[in-house]
Specification:
This is Pentachlorophenol monooxygenase/3-(3-hydroxy-phenyl)propionate hydroxylase. Its EC number is 1.14.13.127, 1.14.13.50. This protein is of the alpha+beta class. It has three domains: 7-70 and 100-172 and 264-339, FAD/NAD(P)-binding domain (3-Layer(bba) Sandwich); 176-262, D-Amino Acid Oxidase, Chain A, domain 2 (2-Layer Sandwich), CATH 3.30.9; 379-511, Glutaredoxin (3-Layer(aba) Sandwich), CATH 3.40.30.120. The chain has helices at residues 16-27, 53-61, 66-70, 105-117, 163-169, 236-247, 293-311, 321-345, 350-361, 439-449, 459-462, 467-472, 497-507; strands at 7-12, 32-35, 50-52, 76-81, 84-90, 100-102, 122-125, 130-136, 139-144, 148-156, 173-189, 197-202, 211-217, 221-228, 252-267, 271-272, 275-277, 283-284, 415-416, 419-420, 429-433, 454-458, 479-482, 488-492. Strands 1, 2, 7, 8, 9, 10, 16 and 17 form an eight-stranded mixed β-sheet that branches. It has an eight-stranded mixed β-sheet with strand order 5-4-12-13-14-11-15-18, covered by helices on one side. β13 and β14 form a beta hairpin. α10 (439-449) packs across α13 (497-507). 46% of the residues are buried.
Length: 511
């Protein structure tokens, strides 16, 4: 494909989803132009703070590993009803990365900007508001006030305010807005014992009938979210009083505050021809469970490797339709989960309010919903996944626990002598073969099936102790096909070259 005049891909929006997409595209050798309507970076407030393990892994691959290094890895989540602790839970450890870290979006964007500045394939232009998108068989014309720009594809990561671009594409954005407001504050204070715990309060005496969420952040800072009445406009005195009700007479510094309402919306399409939608441009969810940015970055990764495979001639354009199939399903799941959470947090009917009170007062822990924490979406039903009846998806594991590997599930991030398992997955397709498989024959046959980067590695070769095969539950005659985003595309028992080749064709969208 001939290089277009301005870039191979234009990314609209320089927030963390757009930044991630640009870095991941450049990693595949794709020339990227990032456009943002703002005059420059807005560096105020914590905004999205809680980054999940699998998103940290994506950022490491993108060259922004400092996010994981600088983030605060909290370990315990406590939930209270009034002044009584209902329960607590901790994440199950997997590999070298923490289950999540807290770090302000401002710092995350700074680290991503540093990585972008070191990448010659990426150009960022501020003060470029995109007003329209026109497509033809050979590319996309991106209309700005200054001029029109040209690329083979466009990826819209323009946030929740991308209504004009969605309308240009004929995409609806149906859903709802919740009435209650939320007041958020960043404070700096010394709160011994709170440094590594997330605390959630239902109906505390200092916010009766509503909720409060407290998260620790790096540098002795804390993020506090209060649910407040729809018509309440907090003054400085109100904010000071609310903070004092939580921390007492300890000294503190108020760093930032804001109010907002939650939305629950989803785009009708996430791919329209040569234009893909990602992040808040495609879906909005309530933040309890941290499913916003933790879903937007996997959007960016999914779009990046598929666009790169098409642009590099390794796959046909039909592969891009799987972006919509996979990430729209992920958005729908997040909407269902967060909508159920909001019905519990902000009940709208008498029946919902009565049920919530009965659950909390009765200590019915299994029914308490303060937000199921973000987890990767598993492409069990994807057209790219080869199903295997002997390896069925066992469903979502208990809160904080790990998932049993199966086709469509993201592969465990096992520590190996040469690094982490997922570090070996990011450069193309990876075939993991058992001791009874002929790895050399696999490599010869698969080299005739695809020109995409592909490596065949024996499980024993990668880890001679056998712990990798044990953690995966991999048999000696099995082959595992892993996608560039670390999801398991196929687990093939009694594997032969033809069956592995069929799984590769399928993951390229050729079946």
């Amino acid at each position: 494909m001939n290089a277009p005049a301005d870039a191979q891909v234009i990314v609209v929006g320089a927030g963390p989803v757009g930044q991630s997409a640009a870095l991941l595209l450049a990693r595949w050798g794709i020339q990227v132009l990032v456009l943002d309507r703002r005059a420059g970076r807005d560096s105020t407030g914590s905004k999205s703070i809680c980054q999940q393990r699998d998103v940290l892994d994506i950022w490491i691959a993108a060259g922004a590993g400092k996010i994981a290094e600088e983030g605060l890895a909290w370990t315990t989540a406590r939930t209270y009803y009034r002044d009584r602790e209902l329960f607590s839970w901790s994440f199950e450890r997997e590999g070298p990365l923490p289950a999540c870290v807290n770090i302000s979006q401002t710092r995350t964007e700074q680290i991503l900007d540093e990585a972008i500045a070191a990448q010659p394939l990426i150009e960022v232009r501020w003060g470029h508001e995109v007003t329209g998108l026109d497509q033809d068989p050979s590319g996309v014309t991106v209309r700005c006030a200054q001029r029109s720009l040209r690329a083979s594809y466009a990826l819209v990561c323009a946030g929740a305010r991308a209504q004009q671009l969605r309308q240009t594409l004929g995409v609806s954005f149906d859903g709802e807005t919740f009435d209650d407001q939320f007041l958020i504050c960043d404070i700096k204070a010394d709160l011994p014992g709170w440094e590594n715990e997330r605390r959630f309060y239902f109906d505390p005496l200092w916010n009766p009938g509503r909720q409060v969420l407290i998260h620790p952040c790096p540098g002795g800072t804390f993020r506090i979210d209060w649910q407040i009445a729809p018509d309440f406009i907090p003054t400085k005195a109100d904010i000071s009083r609310k903070i004092r009700q939580i921390i007492g007479d300890r000294p503190y510094e108020l760093l930032w505050h804001s109010t907002y309402r939650f939305h629950s919306r989803i785009a009708s399409r996430m791919r329209v021809g040569r234009v893909l939608l990602a992040g808040d441009s495609a879906h909005l969810v309530a933040p309890f469970g941290a499913r916003g940015l933790n879903s937007g970055v996997p959007d960016a990764e999914n779009a990046a490797w598929k666009l790169a495979f098409v642009l590099n001639g390794w796959a046909g354009e039909g592969l891009l339709e799987s972006y919509h199939a996979e990430r729209h399903a992920a958005a729908r799941e997040n909407l269902e989960i967060t909508a159920a959470t909001m019905r519990f947090l902000a009940p709208r009917t008498v029946a919902e309010r009565m049920r919530r009170r009965a659950v909390l007062e009765g200590g019915r822990v299994a029914e308490v919903d303060s937000g199921r924490f973000a987890e990767p979406f598993w492409y069990v039903d994807s057209p790219l996944t080869t199903p295997e009846p002997t390896r069925p998806f066992e469903g979502r594991p208990p809160k904080g626990a790990l998932c049993v590997p199966a086709p469509g599930v993201i592969i465990p991030d096992v520590g190996l002598p040469g690094g982490r398992l997922r570090e070996f997955c990011r450069d193309g397709f990876l075939v993991l073969s058992g001791d009874m498989c002929d790895s050399r024959l696999f490599a010869q046959v698969l080299g005739k099936v695809t020109t995409a980067p592909l490596a065949v590695r024996g499980l024993a070769e990668m880890d001679g102790t056998g712990s990798l095969a044990q953690r995966l539950g991999a048999g000696p005659d099995e082959a595992w096909l892993i996608r560039p985003d670390s999801h398991i595309a196929a687990i093939i028992p009694h594997a032969g070259p033809d069956s592995v080749a069929g799984a590769v064709r399928r993951v390229l969208g050729k079946q």
